[in-house]
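[09:14] KT: can someone run the structure on this one? pasting the chain below
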Amino acid sequence: MAIAFIFCVFLMRFFYIQVIWEDDLHYLALDQWTREIPVVAGRGKIVDRNGELLAGNQTAYSVFARASAVKNAEKSAELLSAQLNVPYESILTKLTDKSRSEVTVVRQTGKETVEKIEGANLSGIYYSRDNVRVYPYGSLACQILGFTSYDRSGTTGVEQYYNKYLAGKNGEILFETDLIGVDLKGAAAAYLPAEDGLNVRLTLDYRIQALAEEVMQKTLESTNAKAARCIVLDPNDFSLLAMVNLPSYDLNEIPRNDIDTLNRLSRNSLVSDVYEPGSTFKIVTAAANIEEYLKGNSDAFSLNHVFPSARTRTVEGSTIKCWSDHANGKHSNQTLAEALNNSCNPCFVDIALSVGKEKFYDYLSAFRFGRESGIDFSGESIGMLLPESAVQNGDLARIGFGQAIAVTPLQLACAAASAVNGGYYYAPRTVAEIYSDDGSVREKMQPSLVARTVSEEASALLSNMLEGVVRDGSGKKAYIEGYRVAGKTGTAQKYENGVIAQGKYISSFVGYFPANQPRYLALIVVDEPEGSYYGSAVAAPCAKEIFEGIIRVMQIAPVEGVV
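[09:31] RB: done, C-alpha cells below
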C-alpha cells in the first residue's frame, strides 16, 4: 500500500513537470541555450489631416552585453566607456553581473559608434537597430502629440492614448550558445521579424495649428500673461483643428530631468484644467431661454422682451452688479440680443431664475457640463458643477452669467459649437483614422453624436444674435469685413483660496464663422494678462487674426453683400 502511494506521488510529480510546468521549463532551457537580440518594431507615424509628418522615427542602435560571454571585462568597459560616453564603473558593473543573462549597455546610440564597437571585436557585446522618436516641428502641438518613454512606449498625449496602434510588436534574433553564453560555431540563427506599428492621422491641421500658436505666442508676450490657450474645431463634427497651450516645450528636447517643469509644460490644460468662464457662458443661458420660449414655456422671455435697466439684481440678500455703471442710459431697454451685445449680467440672472433650476440643469447636462465630453484623450476633467440638490437661487443666478461654475476650455468650446450648429453635440476627436504603411485604413473614427441640445430654429436665432455681438457689440475687434463672424466675449475674475484675487483676470472670446453655416470655431483664453484685461480687448483680436489666417490658408472668398 505504501509503495503504491509513493508510486502515485512520483507519477503526479512527473505529470506536473512534463505537462503543467512544460512551458516554463522550455523557456528556461531556451534562455540557457540561446541569446536573444531584439528586433525593434518601427513605431507608427503621426501625421496631420493632410498627411504632414508630425512624429516619426530616426534609426539608432542599442548595445547589449552577456556577462557570461565577456572575456575581458575591464578592457571592454574601457573601450565602451570611451565610445559611448558612459562612466567606466557603470559599464564594468554591467559586464560583470552574471546574475542576469543579458543587460542593456546603452540605448539609441549612433551608427558610427556601433561600427567602432563592432570593429573592436569584443566578446559578449552585441547590438541591434533601435529607433529614436523625432518631431519635425519641435514644439508644434506638443501637448496633443505627447511623447514616449525611453522604451518607446507612449507616455502622454496621442502617443499614449493610441499606443496600442503605434507601438507595433518587437521581434528577435535567436543565437544558439553553450552553457556560459558563448556562440556555438556553425549554429544557425532564428529570426522572428518585428511588426511595425500602425500610423495615426490626426484631425489637426498643422497650418491652422502653426498660425494659432504664432498668434497666441505674440499675445502671451505682449500681455505678459501667465498662459495663452486656444482651441479651433469644426462645429460640424467637433473634429479638433488646433489646440494651443502656451508656454510649451520642444518635443525633441524633453526636460525629463525636471519633472515639475515637464508636468507643467506637457499638460493639455484645454482638457485637464478648469476655470470660471464668465460671459462666454451666456451663450448657453441664451440658448436655453430661446429653446424654452420656442417650446411655449411661459417662464422664458420672448425675443422682444425688454429687461429692466437697473444695474443690479438682489438675490437672497446678495447684490449682483453689471460690469457697466449704466450711466447715460447705457444698457437701458435691452432685448436678449442687446443684452448679449452689452454682456449685461443682470439680464442673464433674470433668465436663469426664470427658467428655473430643474430645467436649467437639464440644459447644463445636455451641454455636457459636469461630465466628460468623450474626447479621445486621457486626463479629461469633468469641471465643477454644484449638485442640483444643493443649488440655491443665488448660485443659479451666478451660473447664468458664468460664475459659480468651472469648466474646461474644451467643454465650453463644444457647448458653444453645439449651440450654434443646429443643436448637435458630438464627441470631440483628435484622430481621424488609423492606417498602415501601404495606405490601407485599418480603423476610421467616425463622428459620434452624443446629444441634442437645442433645436435648429433656436440655434439659428442665437447665431444671428451672436453675429450682432461681433458686428455691433463687445466683440467688434473680431469683426472681419466681408465675412460673417459671430461670437461672445468674456472677462472673469480669478479666485485664490476661495476669495477674489485682486487684479487677476481671465480674458476670453469664443467665435466662429460663417455665422449662418459655421465651419471654424475658436475659443481664446488668456490667463492673467497685464494692462487691459477685457476679453473684448485681449482675446477677440486673437480670434480675428486666427480667422484671417484660416481665410488665407483655405482661400475662403468673402461673402457678397457683407460689409
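[09:33] KT: thanks! Confidence is low (pLDDT under 50) at residues 23-33, 178-182.
[09:34] RB: yep, looked fine to me
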